[in-house]
UniProtKB/TrEMBL annotation:
InterPro entries: Epimerase_deHydtase, NAD(P)-bd_dom_sf, NAD(P)-dependent_oxidoreduct. This is SDR family oxidoreductase. Pfam families: Epimerase (PF01370). Residues 113-136 are annotated as: Disordered.
C-alpha cells in the first residue's frame, strides 16, 4: 500500500513510518521543513513539502495514496488560544483529507485521545467527549468516522495520555519538562489519578494493523498500561532528576491542568482481541528509567 502520512517525524509518526516501511508499504510524508524532509528521506520515505494548513497539498498527497494516516498536530499549544488554533487546524485538515477520499473505499486513520469515563476504564465503545478544552478535536474525529457511510474506510486510533520512547513523550514527558524548568517533580491533586500509556513502537504496530484491516467507522485503543498513578510517575521523575516530589496547583500546568488532574484509565481488551495487537515494548514506568539527570 502507498500511504500518505502527516506528522511523520514526531514521536508516534517516526515509529509509524518505520513500521510501514518495514512491512512492505511505501510512504509519502508531509514535511514542514527541509530538516523534516531530510529525516523522512533518510528513513526511506518520500517527502511532500507543505504545512498542515496547506489544504491543497494535503488533498494532493491523499490523491496519490492508497491510504492515509493523519497524525500531525500543532506544536504550539501552551495557551488556550494556541490549543484552540491547533484543534481548528487539525479539524480543517481532516475534513480536506476525508473529502478527497469520498467514494473510494480507501482507508484513513486518524488519532484522538482515549475518553474519560467516571468510575471505570474507558473502552473502545465509549464515545469521545465533545465538551471541554479538547472537545473540538473529538468533533472532528467523529465527523471523519461518519464518512464511513460515504465510501471512506475511516478509523481512529485513540492514544493514551502518554506515548513514550526512551523516557520521552506524552503527558509524562510534559511532567519531566516542567520538573526541569521548576526544580520540582510536581503532580496535581493527590496524585492518585491514573494515566494510561503506550510505547511508541507498540502504537506504530496498531496504526499499521488498523490501516490494513480495520472496518470503516471504528475506533481502537492503543493502550498498553491501563493506568499509572501520576504521583508514581512523578516519583520516578524526581528520583531520576534528583528533585523533590510535591503536589503543585493544576494551574501550573497551563491549559492541560484540568486534564492532568483527571482520573483517566483506559482498556484495550477489545483492540487486542479483534486485531491481535500485543504490546511488547517497555512499560511507561520502565521507560522512565531512561530519563537522564
Amino acid at each position: 500500500m502507498h500511504v500518505f502520512i502527516t506528522g511523520g517525524t514526531g514521536t508516534i509518526g517516526s515509529a509509524v513510518v518505520a513500521e510501514l516501511l518495514g512491512n512492505g508499504h511505501t510512504v509519502l510524508a508531509l514535511a514542514r521543513s527541509d530538516h523534516s524532509a531530510q529525516a523522512l528521506e533518510s528513513a526511506g520515505a518520500k517527502a511532500l513539502r507543505g504545512d498542515l494548513s496547506d489544504l491543497d497539498v494535503l488533498r494532493s498527497g491523499a490523491a496519490q495514496a492508497d491510504g492515509v494516516i493523519s497524525l500531525a498536530f500543532g506544536r504550539d499549544y501552551n495557551s488556550p488560544d494556541a490549543l484552540a488554533h491547533a484543534i481548528a487546524e487539525e479539524g480543517a485538515a481532516l475534513a480536506a483529507l476525508g473529502q478527497e477520499l469520498l467514494g473510494s473505499d480507501r482507508p484513513i486513520v486518524t488519532v484522538s485521545g482515549t475518553p474519560w469515563v467516571p468510575g471505570r476504564p474507558a473502552t473502545e465503545a465509549d464515545p469521545l467527549p465533545t465538551d471541554g478544552p479538547v472537545g473540538g478535536r473529538s468533533r472532528s474525529v467523529t465527523a471523519l468516522l461518519d464518512l464511513a457511510s460515504r465510501g471512506v474506510r475511516s478509523t481512529a486510533v485513540r492514544m493514551p495520555r502518554t506515548v513514550h520512547n526512551e523516557g520521552r513523550g506524552g503527558f509524562a514527558g510534559l511532567l519531566v519538562d516542567a520538573a526541569r524548568r521548576t526544580g520540582v517533580a510536581g503532580y496535581p491533586g493527590d496524585g492518585a489519578q491514573r494515566w494510561p500509556a503506550v510505547h511508541a513502537l507498540d502504537a506504530a504496530v496498531l496504526f499499521r494493523l488498523v490501516l490494513e484491516s480495520a472496518p470503516a467507522g471504528t475506533a481502537w485503543h492503543a493502550v498498553a498500561d491501563e493506568g499509572d498513578a501520576v504521583r508514581d510517575i512523578a516519583t520516578v521523575i524526581g528520583r531520576r532528576l534528583n528533585l523533590p516530589v510535591e503536589e503543585v496547583p493544576q494551574e501550573n500546568f497551563g491549559p492541560f491542568g484540568p486534564i492532568f488532574a483527571m482520573d483517566q484509565p483506559a482498556s484495550s481488551a477489545h483492540t487486542r482481541k479483534a486485531l491481535g495487537w500485543q504490546p511488547t515494548h517497555p512499560s511507561l514506568m520502565e521507560d522512565l528509567e531512561n530519563i537522564q539527570p
